[in-house]
Write a structure and sequence with these properties.
Elements lengths: L8 E8 L10 H15 L2 E9 L10 H11 L5 E4 L2 H4 L3 H14 L2 E4 L9 H38 L18 H15 L4 H10 L12 H9 L6 E4 L14 E5 L8 H11 L2 H9 L11 E3 L14 E2 L7 E3 L13 E3 H17 L1 H36 L5 H25 L1 H5 L6 H10 L2 H11 E6 L13 E5 L2
Parallel strand pairs: 1-2, 1-3, 3-4, 7-11
Antiparallel strand pairs: 5-6, 8-9, 9-10, 11-12
Bound molecules: zinc ion.
């Protein structure tokens, strides 16, 4: 039905929603495309209706849509332009209403993604199919959202119902400076390779509590420090992520409107470190390490073939005196032939490491190795992007789940290998804020716990071989052979 000039009076309908690639298709873009479409069809745009409706499927009311239908019934418009059928309706019943209206009032419908003629049976079938596909997608989305809400609720319970994120006030915008300082400290310590359990223990003794007033646990601290929120960025769990629990890392989709507490760079590095599966096992496996050098010391007793035993030494006290020993473990090659006093060994290794760190030449060589790390960063970033792209392909059904798993496997293997390498070469972070004069470092060493000290030691040496004691000498530093990393 045309007006007197013969031009169709068209209404553009836009809907804000969270679907289509996660970020939603902007309303400005929807309107722009629809206006271009109307111009092409020679339609006269007399109204633009926009509903802010995050999900049509949830049955939320859409006042502008209702308004538009009213205008159709009153005969004020005779054409509707939408970006896609799923902008207009997602329920079959609503679609039937539209088809019915189109029938009775001769309304034409045009979509940017392809015109649909509701006046013909074929056009209606296409519309119904598109509607069904959209509904299928919406149902899946509803399922995901339900799961997410449940997880949010569970997290909320752990947080004691308090919604305030650590580091921010109740408005989620204002930085709480005392907590921001704690977050920055936590990030520094993770970058220095300290374990989450160790940081939690320290915070516990200092009385630092979560917003729920509870002591920090490694799992909670991990989520806090890996969250994009603390760098002022918004994170979105990507579609096509099929894990049963919320993945640690979502996709960073936008800058947040709130201020960041740490830099984007630090956030990216911490996220990489905390998502390293090797690290995760370490965190869950060993929570306490009272012996600084267990596993770093290697038994140096020669075997029959002349090679040294090489077994990692572990802490084993005798008569209350802490020692490192080549363990006597039946069924292994450990020779059980070497032991050394733990306290004196710790001191000796500490002094050797601090002396090395005081040497400009040694630091120069370490820095050279960190340059190799930046190439690894690049490779890791590329692999991570490829994984995301694959997940998207599968989310949008461009590849099958099987194809996805096959393609994913080789990338993940390479990724884990590179992450492991990176954790070995990324020493600048471990040592920043520590290196200084010998006396400075000795002072800082005193303030550190064993996990922090261990990070310093392993940033400098791969291992230390310990020869069996000479019974005639009380303490012999020559028994220790250092395998320096640089
Ligand atoms: Zn041995």
């Amino acid at each position: 039905m045309a007006n007197l000039t013969g031009t169709r009076r068209a209404a553009i309908y836009c809907r804000i929603s969270q679907d289509r690639g996660g970020a939603g298709l902007g309303v400005a873009r929807q309107e722009e495309d629809c206006r271009a479409l109307c111009a092409r069809l020679g339609w006269d745009v007399i109204a633009v209706h926009t509903d802010n409706d995050v999900s049509a499927y949830s049955g939320a009311t859409r006042p502008e849509w209702t308004e538009l239908l009213g205008a159709v019934r009153r005969g004020e418009i005779d054409a509707i332009a939408v970006w896609h059928v799923d902008r207009m309706t997602r329920s079959p019943r609503e679609l039937e209403d539209v088809i019915d209206l189109a029938d009775r009032h001769g309304v034409e419908l045009a979509t940017v993604s392809g015109e649909i003629d509701l006046a013909t049976p074929t056009g209606r079938m296409v519309a119904r199919m598109l509607g069904a596909a959209a509904r299928h997608e919406a149902e899946h989305k509803a399922e995901r959202q339900k799961r997410q809400r449940r997880q949010a609720a569970e997290a909320g319970r752990i947080a004691g119902g308090g919604k305030r994120p650590f580091g921010y006030e109740d408005d989620r915008m204002t930085v709480r400076s005392s907590e921001a300082e704690v977050i920055r400290e936590g990030v520094r310590r993770v970058l220095a390779n300290e374990s989450l359990a160790s940081i939690c223990r320290d915070w516990q003794t200092r009385g630092i509590l979560s917003p729920a007033g509870k002591p920090w646990k490694p799992s909670g601290l991990r989520r806090l420090l890996a969250s994009a929120r603390i760098s002022g960025r918004r994170e979105h769990t990507p579609r096509g992520s099929w894990e049963s629990t919320r993945p640690l890392l979502g996709e960073i989709v936008a800058d947040g409107v709130w201020p960041g507490i740490i830099s984007h760079e630090d956030s990216d590095r911490v996220r990489r470190i905390l998502s390293d599966p090797a690290r995760r096992q370490r965190v869950e496996g060993t929570t306490k390490r009272s012996y600084l050098l267990s596993g770093i010391l290697r038994c140096g007793k020669p075997k029959e073939n002349g090679e040294s035993c090489g077994w990692p030494m572990s802490g084993r006290p005798r008569s209350g005196v802490p020692r490192y020993v080549c363990p006597n473990v039946p069924g292994t090659d450990a020779c059980a032939g070497t032991a050394t006093n733990a306290e004196r060994t710790d001191e000796h290794v500490r002094d050797m490491v601090l002396a090395a760190l005081e040497s400009p030449a040694f630091m120069e060589r370490l820095r050279g190795q960190d340059d190799a790390g930046s190439e690894l960063y690049e490779e890791i970033r590329e692999d991570e992007e490829e994984l995301e792209a694959l997940a998207r392909d599968m989310g949008e059904r461009r590849i099958t789940r099987k194809e996805w798993m096959v393609a994913r496997q080789s990338i993940e293997e390479r990724l884990n290998l590179n992450r492991a390498k990176l954790s070995k070469v990324s020493r600048a972070a471990v040592l920043s804020g520590f290196v200084g004069t010998f006396e400075d470092m000795q002072e800082r060493w005193k303030q550190m716990n064993n996990s922090q000290r261990r990070a310093i030691v392993t940033a400098c040496v791969r291992s230390v071989e310990v020869s069996p004691a000479n019974p005639r000498k009380r303490w012999d530093p020559d028994r220790f052979v250092f395998d320096w990393v640089a």
